[in-house]
Amino acid sequence: MLTNKHPLRLALCILAAAVICGACSKNETYAQQKEKERKAINSFLDRDIAILDNEGDTVVHVGRINTISEQQFYEQDSTTDVSKNEYVLFGNTGVYMQIVRKGAGSKLASGESKRVITRYVEFNILRDSIQSRNDVFYYHTSPDIIEIANTYGTFTASFSTENGGGAMYRIYGRTEVPAGWLVPFTYINIGRQVEADDRIAKVRLIVPHSSGTYEARQSVYPCFYELTFQQMRE
C-alpha cells in the first residue's frame, strides 16, 4: 500500500504505473479494458473490504456495499442510509455515491462560487491499493483547495495552485477536478464547523475512469474516494 510519507516518490510511482498500465493495455481493446473495469467494480461492491496503509492500519472500512437506485435515493430525501452501507448509482455516469454527512452550512446556490478545502483518500480499485491521499501530516498546511462555481445547476471547478497546490495538483500536475468529485455538490452543504456539533460534509465515491482523473481516463481504471469538503474562511 502507498502512503504520502514521500510525496515525490509517490508521484513518480503513480506516473510509472500509468505508463506500465498503458503499455500493458495496448494489447487490449477499449471494450476489453472497460469490461475489466466493470468486473473490478462489481467485485469491489461485493467485498467486505478495509483499505489499509503501509503499517496495516485501517484507513477506510468500505464493507459490502448495498446499491440503491436514484429513485430510492430521491424518495429518501437524497440521502443514503449509512447503517445499511447504501450507495446510490447514477446511471448516466456510473458513479456510486454514499453521503456519510450532508454537512454544516448550505448548498452552493446557482450563481455562487466558493473555495472549498477537501481532504481525500484515493484507492485504485483495479490495482487494489491506495494511490494517493492528503489526509496525512505532510499535507496538513497545504490541503487541496477546490475553486467551484454553480451555474444553473452545472458545477465547474479547478484545483488551486497557490503555494504549490495540494496533493492532487502536485502528484498529477493538473488543475482539473475529476468530474466524479463534482457529483456530491448537488446534494451536500458547504460550510465550516462553527458550533461544537457541526460536522463538515463527507462522502464516499466509486468513480469509473470516464469520470476520473486524466490518468484514470487514459489507463481505464476506477477509483474509490473518501472525501470531506469544508468552506474556506473569507
What does this structure look like?
The structure is a single chain. By secondary structure, the protein is of the alpha+beta class. It has one domain: Roll (Chitinase A, domain 3). Helices cover about 25% and strands about 30% of the residues. Strands 3, 4, 5, 6, 7, 8, 9, 10 and 11 form a nine-stranded mixed β-sheet that branches. It has a two-stranded antiparallel ribbon with strand order 1-2. Strand 4 and strand 5 (about 95-100) form a beta hairpin. The longest helix is centred in the N-terminal third of the chain and has 19 residues, at about 5-25. The protein is globular and about 50 Å long.
Q: What characteristics describe this protein?
A:
two-stranded antiparallel ribbon; disordered N terminus; 234 residues; 24% helix; 11 strands; nine-stranded mixed β-sheet; Chitinase A, domain 3; alpha+beta; globular; 6 helices
Number of domains: 1
CATH topology: Chitinase A, domain 3
Q: Given this structure, which CATH class is correct?
A: Alpha Beta
Tell me roughly what share of residues is in helical segments: 10-25%
Largest sheet: 9 strands, mixed
Q: Which outline best applies?
A: globular
Provide the gyration radius in Å.
Answer: 17 Å
Q: What CATH architecture do you see?
A: Roll
User: By helix and strand content, what is the structural category?
Assistant: alpha+beta
Distance between the termini: 37 Å
Q: pLDDT under 50 segments (min length 5)?
A: 1-5
What is the H-and-E element order? HHEEEHEEEEEEHHEHE
Mean pLDDT: 91
Number of strands: 11
- Portion in beta strands: 25-35%
Count of individual helical segments: 6
